[in-house]
Automatic annotation (TrEMBL):
Domain Acyl-CoA oxidase C-terminal positions: 515-691
Key words of the record: FAD, Fatty acid metabolism, Flavoprotein, Lipid metabolism, Oxidoreductase, Peroxisome
InterPro entries assigned to the protein according to its UniProt record, in alphabetical order: ACOX_C_alpha1, Acyl-CoA_ox_N, Acyl-CoA_Oxase/DH_mid-dom_sf, Acyl-CoA_oxidase, Acyl-CoA_oxidase_C, AcylCo_DH-like_C, AcylCoA_DH/ox_N_sf, AcylCoA_DH/oxidase_NM_dom_sf
Subcellular location: Peroxisome
Superkingdom, natural source: Eukaryota
Coiled coil regions, renumbered to chain: none
SUPFAM superfamilies, alphabetized: Acyl-CoA dehydrogenase C-terminal domain-like (SSF47203), Acyl-CoA dehydrogenase NM domain-like (SSF56645)
Organism classification: Eukaryota, Viridiplantae, Streptophyta, Embryophyta, Tracheophyta
Family: Belongs to the acyl-CoA oxidase family.
Cofactor needs: FAD
An example molecular function term from Gene Ontology annotations: fatty acid binding
Entry GO terms, CC: peroxisome
Protein name: Acyl-coenzyme A oxidase
Length: 699
């Protein structure tokens, strides 16, 4: 599909091929993809004379390719959608924290319906629609419909099933969710208690089930349940189940469905109707089991296809991959706010009464902020690479090559875990970097945190996912002597013998500026931690018992491996041609900051495995400090390059024009408490108390 073609028609008309469960596949680009441009600016204490980004119209994105040198293909679409959303009154940012749950939810329905209307009217491409969703910035049922329901049918349905269901889903004539988690089981998918029992008499299934899904909107769900036919169990499979009437939206007979109630934070993820669902003898036709992996015949016989059963988990691999890119977006947003505000905010400074120091000039502020800025870029690059990996694995799957599936699973699981944990921590750090004002709702950071933090849990608890990576790594180590060559992200393990012996060559601080030196240190650390775990595991008679006992160390080894992937993809990126004056140099600095800060934070690993000496660690730290000074002059430009509108940022502290204080003051007066000068409750509670004090004083 070309982006010029209509989104709706194209999706409907496109051939529904097996295994093509990446709706964004054609947008995949391994090219550099910063949403924005290189704008060397000096920040003189904050306020710029440019006005807000929305006010600037075409000035805002200053497309001066000769000066800026380089625009990724994605930029145009992203910028256009950002402005479309920012200028549409229906998409205005409500003060979500102030809305009741019902208002909040209805607003989301209104925005989602309007987005869909605009998508059709403007004949937006898939890429454009996806960007629009991003800038609308409100978790909604549509995320699950497009992000999980549709991919589940594409990945796990037969060609016939796809032809039946996908046109309905693409036109949103049915709305679906992904109903897998139960009250008692989430991580343990094989332990799901929902059963789907085949009844050959009537050619139907029956269910008993308790999900996390969509409580108020979905008409359909892909429900995961253990298949039972002829009294035998055949593992967990997906089933398309209609939940509500397409006429009046009432639940169908045997179905009890509702919302699970308020979640963390005010506003935040409460725009989403996570739901509870109970089936009481609900019957669905046999052909509504997604049968690409296994087919159930009319007689109730199970016929396994040549596709590995892990494909049932395929939707999760797809979504985990998208979550990595989303991590970069959430992190860059928080960093943009904290960086701009740090340039505006002044505290302490010269004793001679001169102007106070911008807090961004404090080394402590830089040492907390700039590694987060570097991480935002690092996650963007690793996210792009992961998209490529996913595209590659789906193409292979179509050709019945399943060889790279385990690596794709390990990479998506591990990087989802690493990037979401780091991003959640980083958003909170950005709040602290903004001092007291960071705690105000109007800073945008509290809600960003509340919306973001469940990413550490959904789509696989982060620790559970790292344990999956650890299993993969232990398998790889155990095969080292067998002649099976590790490939892809574990290729470095083929050099395990060398890496176990290697000595870091750094003698002076600048030696840490060699990518090969950094890579080798990270590879050596990962190999040594993995091999140490494998050796400890081998002492256990029962490997599963050993795995449980050593799980904390295994998680550390998995983290080391995932950090190596991010560092190596950043370095690879820099080996490509990157046009634009000074861009590559700045990215190089960020790459070193990312790597050396990790080294500093995980010094225990590097020292205890003997990968580096304490002297080399100290040189790395010296060098890291000097790199902060090199980022400082371009820090504002580096966050402006994300090209976020003030509408999207939703933060008084992160305003493009730096006009923070007057706007904070203005914002305060919008609070409902300030509607009246004397508060409600004065007569009832405050006045009697004051009078009592007065009486006591007179006594
Ligand atoms: C308002 C605007 C409107 C605009 C409208 C339109 C816009 C349209 C634009 C498009 C937008 C798109 C949006 C996308 C956004 C998406 C947002 C999504 C939000 C997410 C919400 C959250 C959803 C959920 O949480 S769903 C539930 C997720 N659940 C989990 O993740 C459960 C976690 N548990 C597991 O994954 C497994 O159970 C596991 C792996 C932990 C253990 O499984 P099991 O017990 O079977 O494992 P093992 O025995 O350990 O493994 C067996 C074997 O299988 C291998 N394996 C495991 N998993 C996988 C896998 N996924 N893939 C491949 N292989 C796997 C494992 O390695 C083992 O292999 P061996 O070789 O045998 O060792
Ligand atoms: C906002 C949100 C949206 C969601 N949306 C959906 C949805 O659309 N569809 C859907 O089906 N589900 C959804 N979920 C559910 C989500 O996928 C699960 O909550 C998630 O997979 C974690 O599973 P759990 O709740 O069973 O956690 P648990 O597995 O119970 O985890 C609890 C603790 O136990 C630890 N733990 C668990 N197993 C192990 C182990 N083997 N070894 C070591 N430690 C372990 C974990 O690390 C964690 O600390 C959503 C959840 C949230 C929060």
């Amino acid at each position: 599909m070309s982006s010029a073609q209509g989104f709706l028609n194209d999706w409907v008309e496109s051939r529904v091929g097996l295994g093509s469960n990446i709706s964004n596949s054609r947008n995949t680009s391994v090219s550099y993809n910063i949403k924005g441009c290189w704008i060397p600016l000096t920040d003189n204490g904050g306020r710029r004379s440019l006005g807000s980004r929305e006010e600037q119209g075409s000035v805002r994105c200053r497309r001066d390719e000769d000066r800026l040198g380089w625009f990724p293909p994605h930029f145009d679409v992203s910028d256009r959608m950002a402005r479309l959303v920012a200028s549409d009154p229906v998409f205005r940012k409500d003060n979500r924290a102030m809305l009741s749950r019902k208002e909040l939810f209805k607003n989301t329905l209104r925005k989602a319906a309007h987005a869909w209307k605009r998508i059709i009217e403007l004949r937006l491409s898939e890429e454009e629609a996806s960007e629009m969703r991003f800038y609308v910035d409100e978790p909604a049922f549509t995320d699950l419909h497009w992000g999980m329901f549709v991919p589940a049918i594409k990945g796990q349905g037969t060609e016939e099933q796809q032809q039946k269901w996908l046109p309905l889903a693409y036109k949103m004539q049915i709305i679906g969710c992904y109903a897998q988690t139960e009250l008692g089981h989430g991580s343990n998918v094989q332990g799901l208690e929902t059963t789907a029992t085949f009844d050959p008499e009537s050619d139907e299934f029956s269910f008993i089930w308790w999900p996390g899904g969509l409580g108020k909107v979905s008409t359909h769900a892909v429900v995961y349940a253990r298949l039972i036919t002829e009294g035998q169990e055949h593992g967990v499979h997906g089933f398309i189940v209609q939940l509500r009437s397409l006429d009046d939206h009432m639940p169908l007979p045997g179905i009890t469905v509702g919302d699970i109630g308020m979640k963390f934070g005010t506003g935040a993820y409460n725009t989403m109707d996570n739901g509870v669902l109970r089936f009481d003898n609900v019957r669905i036709p046999r052909n509504q089991m997604l049968m690409r992996v296994m087919r159930v015949t009319r007689e109730g016989k199970c016929v396994q296809s040549n596709v590995p059963r892990q494909l049932i988990y395929g939707t999760m691999v797809y979504v985990r991959q998208t979550i990595v890119s989303d991590a970069s977006s959430a992190l860059s947003r928080a960093v943009c706010i904290a960086t701009r505000y740090s340039a505006v905010r002044r505290q302490f400074g010269p004793q001679d009464g001169g102007v106070e120091t911008q807090v961004i000039d404090y080394k402590t502020q830089q040492s907390r902020l700039f590694p987060l800025l570097a991480s935002a870029y690092a996650f963007r690059f690793v996210g792009e690479w992961l998209k490529w990996l996913y595209l590659d694995v789906t193409q292979r799957l179509q050709a019945n090559d399943f060889s790279t599936l385990p690596e794709a699973h390990a990479c998506t699981a591990g990087l989802k875990s690493l990037t979401t944990s780091a991003t959640a921590d980083a958003i909170e750090e950005c709040r602290k970097l903004c001092g007291g004002h960071g705690y105000l709702s109007s800073s945008g950071l509290p809600e960003l945190f509340a919306v973001y933090v469940p990413a550490c849990t959904y789509e696989g608890d982060n620790v559970v996912l790292l344990l999956q990576v650890a299993r993969f790594l232990m398998k790889t180590v155990s095969q080292l002597g067998s002649g099976k060559k590790p490939v892809g992200t574990t290729a470095y393990m083929a050099r395990a013998e060398d890496l176990l012996q290697s000595r870091c060559s750094v003698q002076k601080a600048e030696d840490w500026l060699k990518p090969s030196v950094i890579l080798e240190a990270f590879e050596a650390r990962a190999v040594r931690m993995c091999v140490a775990c494998a050796q400890s595991l081998s002492k256990f008679q029962n490997p599963e018992e050993g795995f449980l006992e050593l799980s904390a160390d295994l998680v550390e080894a998995a983290i080391a491996h995932c950090q190596l992937i991010v560092v190596s993809k950043f370095i690879e990126k820099l080996q490509q041609d990157i046009p634009g004056k000074g861009v590559k140099q700045q990215l190089q600095i960020l790459c070193y900051i990312y790597a050396l800060n990790l080294l500093h934070k995980h010094l225990g690993d590097f020292l205890s495995t003997g990968c580096i000496t304490p002297k080399q660690a100290s040189l790395a730290n010296d060098h890291l400090r000097s790199l902060y000074s090199k980022v400082r002059p371009n820090a504002i430009a580096l966050v402006d390059a994300f090209n976020y509108t003030d509408h999207f940022l939703g933060s008084v502290l992160g305003r493009y024009d730096g006009n923070v204080y007057p706007k904070l003051y203005e914002e305060a007066w919008k609070d409902p408490l300030n509607d009246s000068v004397v508060p409600d409750g004065y007569q009832e509670y405050i006045r009697p108390m004051l009078k009592q004090q007065l009486r006591n004083a007179r006594l």
